[in-house]
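lol so apparently i was supposed to do this last week
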Amino acid sequence: MPSAVQPPRTLYDKVFEDHIVDEKDDGTILLYIDRHLVHEVTSPQAFEGLRNAGRKVRRPDCTLATVDHNIPTISRKNLTTTEKFIDEADSRTQCMTLEENVKAFDLTYFGLDDKRQGIVHIIGPEQGFTLPGTTVVCGDSHTSTHGAFGSIAQGIGTSEVEHVLATQTLITRRSKNMKVQVDGELAPGVSSKDIILHIIGVIGTAGGTGCTIEFCGSAIRSLSMEARMSICNMAIEAGARAGMIAPDQTTIDYLKGRPLAPKVDSPEWKKAVNYWLTLKSDPDAKWDHEIYIDCKDIAPTVSWGTSPQDVIPITGKVPSPDDFQDEVKKNACKRALEYMGLEAGTPMQEIPVDKVFIGSCTNARIEDLRAAARVVQGKKVASNIKHAMIVPGSGLVKKQAEAEGLDKIFTDAGFDWREAGCSMCLGMNPDILSPGERCASTSNRNFEGRQGAGGRTHLMSPVMAAAAAIVGNLADVRKLAPPSTSAAKGSPKVEVQGDAHMEDPTSDEDLDHIMDAPVDNATHPSSTSTQGASAGMPKFETLRGYAAPMDIANIDTDAIIPKQFLKTIKRSGLGSALFHPWRYEPGTTTEKSSFILNQDPFRRSKILVCTGPNFGCGSSREHAPWALLDFGIKCVIAPSYGDIFFNNTFKNGMLPIRIGDQAVLEKIADVAKAGKELEVDLPNQVIRDGGGTELAKFEVEEFRKHCLINGLDDIGLTMGNVKAIERHEAKRSREWPWLDGSGFLARHRKGPVKVEAAAVPKTNRGEVVGEPLEW
Ligand SMILES: CC(C)[C@H](C(=O)O)[C@@H](O)C(=O)O
Ligand code: SF4
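anyway here it is w/ 3-isopropylmalic acid bound
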């Protein structure tokens, strides 16, 4: 809480400072994590790491797992087991691996047979697991969604997932503060999705790099929690580490009665609400960047290209490369038009659509479905639409929608009504676009191949996707629907407990069952434990080798390694999948001779030099650095990076180097293009050509450099700091008691803060539906 002497702080500063466990001189911070969401794609290697080191999950009470990415969205009427239900072998293995892991590590799990299952970023808020003022992580880039509650929520890679599971902390650094203020009233037909698409169009996909964006202003305050979540969800598409919105009465009303929020009117609830309402930026807080947006400038917005910044009002025309001054942008536009099969100058509303997807963690909440249903009601899906699907974000959203008859509205119109999951947002399950198909989609990424190899994605709001389905072209919803916005003030109610949750998790009786105490790894090492040991990665000192030159901007991790390769439960063997869509002829393993890594000597590259900005943006998949490493590339040199990718490389003993001076970077790229070797000398922080002539100096944070040179493993290092973690946990239990699992709390009240690891009782993990949650 601010005292008179404290300098003015932002919301981010306040929440961040409340979670610092330890801080090093170079700004490296050990941050306590309150909430950890886990899904099947980014966790198998993390659990394997824990197993190999004999480590346990430190705070099962702060960890919640579900399956969402790989699962089919067909009816579950015939569901018996995951093994029988999922046809595709790798998807099945990944889901079953999670089931095994949640059992072995005693974690709460919403499986396929649980009504509460859903997209990880939908179920956290729905259950009240996401709370204001907390730190939330997940091995998933759209963790930013949870920032809508005034939490610091960020995506992490799999190595960091392992770190959080083992230590309940994350090694990080302060981000910069960016304010995006949106004022005014939304025009009819304009929703929060249009706000965020518009913002990304203004600041670009690298606009928020290194920042946490706080969204504020009268327009944001007037939004429901659902609408706020859609905005924070896409903070990652703006390049930001996280997005945040200050909690207010709307937030508090949303949380009332959620199973994992403190019980309304309990002393904890009152204490929590008082604390939550202090969480706002001080009026004179300093911002590193400030952006002001007026709602009158926001129209229903759609994307035309292959980056979320390629957006335009629906009334506009497909842009031409000549509209861009900058060479990199001109080329990006040319490339995007070719991929999207679009002619410059075509009115957006004349573009026919093949498929419609209403779903994803951006727009699959009850409010989204209600808004889309209002547009669809009494109408029919156009005859040229091959498939229009509605994929609710969770089992509970689905149930609620059915209770309101929305499913009937959709199916009467010709939509396909599905079960919850990520579905065609990224198509790790059977829901994909065929090559050349064009989709009106409420998801968040329109990268090449995102919804299926060769598929073409146009991003838009739920009402705009509904309009496209009815018209058969990209369409302006204002011509179809009675004017209304989806920015309703009150949050729509979803029955949050479902069949699966009939009991009160905080009743005394349940407390006897709930014994989810934190596992103190320091005092309970397993026999095979290597905790405390910190060596474990190959050392990085000086690297010499060929460097592959690339000149593309915004190379996203979907391009570095597409979704079909994320189904592995191993870290190795991904080299052949690196840049798959660019490296091979479509649908074959025939190499494209034009692609740089298929040419000599670049097949043997150890370094990649990219002159375009924002390398590794997008998804948090650590498979991207794994694939580079497996190919032989240990160092990337680029002007700037997606934050999560940047972190992920270090965790694998790789070195990402930022060279901001474009002229210097071009000089390095020239050596690479000439097929000559480069030398990267980490101890001296110098890049040289093969002859030893210095080309550039580079910066690297002290702690990271130290870890790379000595091959140190973060988890081992953090384990050495367990006393500081315990001290933070004691403070946390005193000041924010509602954050502990109720089992933890019960024990804490009875005895000392430092609890013994307890045998975990039988719970609802995976197998039993109807038992209470473990909080
Ligand atoms: C699978 C996961 C790593 C990924 C992400 O981080 O975003 C996915 O959710 C996506 O949307 O691409
Ligand atoms: S962006 Fe798509 S794939 Fe990623 S978590 Fe959200 S719904 Fe799932």
